[in-house]
């Protein structure tokens, strides 16, 4: 039976993971679980730098650029995950979103 602590090869994604809590979550996932861990961030340079920092710690994470405010970015990564792995097992949605005042009605009634 697969559990999060077994060697089943789960596929993890952490959004907004190039620093702070998201980076810490990726660090823990890489050190405690088998499987693929994707560190995603809006800024490619910062995301790649975070992956390099993890490598220096002896940890292995993969990077993919992802902007959760951009539908095309979400669809691109989603299709990649479906094609490559058949989907995703664990999502940690850590990325922050800024509410735009002129679109506030979309968030209030969602």
Automatic annotation (TrEMBL):
GO terms for molecular function: alcohol dehydrogenase (NAD+) activity; carbonyl reductase (NADPH) activity. Gene3D superfamilies: NAD(P)-binding Rossmann-like Domain. SUPFAM superfamilies: NAD(P)-binding Rossmann-fold domains (SSF51735). It is an enzyme of class 1 (oxidoreductase). Coiled coil: none annotated. It comes from Halocaridina rubra (Hawaiian red shrimp). InterPro entries: NAD(P)-bd_dom_sf, SDR_fam. This is NADH-cytochrome b5 reductase. Its EC number is 1.1.1.1. Keywords: NADP, Oxidoreductase. Pfam families: adh_short (PF00106). Belongs to the short-chain dehydrogenases/reductases (SDR) family. The keyword Oxidoreductase applies.
